[in-house]
Write a structure and sequence with these properties.
Radius of gyration: 22 Å
Shape: globular
Distance between the termini: 58 Å
Helix content: 40-55%
CATH class of the largest domain: Alpha Beta
Largest sheet: 9 strands, mixed
Number of domains: 3
CATH architecture of the largest domain: 3-Layer(aba) Sandwich
Structural class: alpha/beta
CATH superfamily of the largest domain: Type I PLP-dependent aspartate aminotransferase-like (Major domain)
Number of helices: 15
CATH topology of the largest domain: Aspartate Aminotransferase, domain 2
Length: 475
């Protein structure tokens, strides 16, 4: 099946190249980057392309404009707010995940319309293409066709399976429509994937810190978790992965592959291939959650682990909840060699996913709306992340550290040792602000000095005042 390759615009390519040069040290913080005309001549592009690239880099917080002087590399990264530390070394031990009801209690407690939702990893409704989706849904409903009233039994709406396969092909994954199973969001895809490879009492490997929704899934399935320390940029400690596989009969390794939640880590292709090769040597399947992969700030989508899968042991999960609409609850699973078992589990779990929602997403993908929308929101998320880091630098206590994500929209914050984010959570609630305290992101409630914030909110009048209020509480 041929698939269109979604190439970044020329200005995005130029911005990415300049970013690489900055990160490689060619231009240091405070250095002036080449002028507009020189960049246009050097890279054989138009002046307008350069201007767009400069604007993108400025939104991402990489450069800043100085009137009548040009653009300069911004004092950010490790020069501005120290990078969050890697987790301290911990003894590897399988833990039966319990008490994850606490996470649901916190979510329900902060569901008020008057609460500033820094705690939930959910973009503000203004960041979704609501009007376009409504128009598509209305058009389908008005049509002289009652097809959306029927079950679309597993694997799902055939045309949507084709659209999703094309999308995965554009990521570099060799799949067809027959390899796709439509699910009720990524959450259900993860549940089905884990049921395919593990049973109650089995040992699975998790990133540490990890997404608390995944801990809830493991709690529900009765699995035992071994938490693998993660580097804020490169992800899982591969030596610890090998140690765990040698000590226990590991049934699965679960990763948020690109711009992980909450750390924002994104391993490079070599690291991904090394992890996959290591797991293959122990016959351990990889369950991949790639829900943030489309949200790369530089427009270059990272490669999924699924691209490197030669054995059918990568079970790829994703959805549109972070990019298009959480309410439609449309996700998918590409389960590799577990396709038949996954379809059966889906049918016994809830028969089928909603047909109308599948049709709406399918039309939205086919008319090109998704890619146009994602180009817009990832620029906004990049700008918000940069502004959040800068504001934390000036308003939070000295010694505060943050992650430095290159995609997604969540920020992991580490406070100095005297601060307990459980107490901060309670104080923030009194000011109608929710945060996600660090203990939620571990099966044994570590990370008490950390918390996660959602940056996919309008800077004014929501995000900036809320962060300033947190700074006042901490100071």
């Amino acid at each position: 099946m041929d698939a269109p390759r979604f190439q970044p615009h020329r200005y995005e390519q130029l911005a990415e190249q300049l970013t690489r040069e900055i990160q490689a040290g060619r231009y240091s913080p405070g250095d002036k980057i080449p002028g507009t005309r020189l960049l246009a001549e050097t890279h054989s592009v138009s002046i307008n392309t350069v201007l767009q690239a400069q604007k993108l880099l400025e939104n991402q917080g990489m450069i800043e404009a100085v009137p009548r002087s040009g653009f300069f590399v911004k004092w950010r990264g490790k020069d501005a707010v120290q990078l969050v530390k890697s987790p301290a070394k911990a003894t590897l031990k399988p833990i039966l995940v319990k008490r994850q009801r606490l996470a649901l209690d916190l979510i329900q407690a902060t569901g008020s319309k008057t609460m500033v939702q820094l705690g939930a990893a959910l973009p503000h409704e203004s960041y979704f293409p609501g009007q376009e989706l409504q128009r598509i849904a209305a058009r389908i409903s008005r049509a002289d066709d009652t097809g959306f009233m029927r079950y679309e039994v597993p694997p799902g709406l055939p045309s949507l399976c084709e659209s999703l396969a094309l999308r995965m092909l554009s990521y570099g994954c060799e799949v067809s429509a027959a390899d796709i199973l439509v699910t009720n969001g990524c959450h259900e895809a993860l549940i089905i994937a884990l049921k395919c490879v593990a049973e109650p009492g089995d040992v699975v490997l998790l990133e540490s810190p990890t997404y608390y929704g995944l801990l809830q899934v493991i709690d529900t399935l009765g699995l035992r978790a071994v938490e693998i320390p993660c580097h804020p940029e490169s992800g899982m400690d591969l030596d610890k992965v090998e140690d765990a596989c040698q000590q226990w009969d590991v049934k699965a390794c679960i990763v948020v592959s690109n711009f992980s939640n909450p750390l924002g880590s994104c391993p490079d292709n070599n690291q991904k291939q090394t992890l996959l090769s290591l797991l293959n040597s122990f016959d351990v399947p990889l369950v991949e959650d790639d829900i943030y992969g489309d949200l790369a700030f530089d427009g270059h989508r990272p490669t999924p682990y699924k691209h490197f899968d030669t054995t059918g042991e990568v079970l790829y999960c994703s959805s549109f909840s972070k990019s298009v609409s959480p309410g439609l609850r449309v996700g998918w699973l590409s389960p590799g060699r577990y396709t038949e078992k996954a379809a059966y589990l889906k049918f016994t779990q809830n028969i089928a996913s909603a047909t109308l929602n599948q049709r709406v997403l399918d039309e939205y993908l086919r008319n090109g709306g998704m890619d146009k929308h994602v180009r817009k929101i990832r620029r906004r998320y990049a700008a918000n992340i940069g502004q959040c880091i800068d504001l934390i630098k000036t308003t939070f206590p000295p010694g505060t550290r943050t992650s430095q994500p290159r995609g997604g929209f969540v920020l992991w914050v580490q406070l100095p040792g005297e601060f307990d984010t459980t107490e901060l959570y309670q104080k923030a609630l009194e000011h109608k602000i929710s945060i996600a305290p660090g203990y939620l992101f571990s099966s044994d409630q570590r990370f008490k000095h950390h918390f996660r914030i959602n940056c996919a909110l309008p800077w004014e009048p929501i995000l900036s005042p809320a962060l300033r209020a947190l700074g006042q509480l901490l100071n």
